[in-house]
Amino acid sequence: MRSVLVASSKGGAGKTTIATHLAAAYAVDGKRTALLDADAQGSAFHWCEKRVGFAHPVLAIDGTRNGWEKRIPSDTERLIIDGPAGAMAAHLSNLLDIVDAVVVPVQPSALDIEATVPFLNSLARHPRVAKGKLPIGLVGNRLKPWTLASQNAIAAIESWPFPLRARLRDSQCYVLLTGLGKSLFDYGSEQVREHQADWRPLLRWLKKVG
Question: For the chain, what is the mean pLDDT?
């Protein structure tokens, strides 16, 4: 089983949207996929519940309850973890000790960028990260590439020690699809394929690291 933690100390960064879309991408690809929701809000868990009966379901696991490890089926191939909201690395240590990769979403605003720096610094101090045994990938989220704000944000993110692995364009389709228990990967229209292309660098990277 390969596991990916999606985490951010900044609320509203798009953590749950990225976690659910990663889970859907693996499920649509034929992988037995579970989504561990460690966020007390439970949005990822409810997204999984809405997928029950769909062609590519994702198993929901409540990560806020003790003993969640025992509820992961032995034949699970991919485990996506929606990390708890607002948590720094010290609060994520039990997850950082076991996952194969960490994905950190960053939105293109000065407040989001400033709030992300202390979180990344806390990750860098974790022993597995410091020793190069736990890869960290950044995702620019809700970008408007034609705007100066997004261009400046990308420049700032690319100056950080952790690599930028994907640039996701801002689109209302994420809000609409997530609310239905769906994802971009459940569709094949030309417009949706353009957004799917934004995810390919991230998916390629995750395949290499795990």
Answer: 94
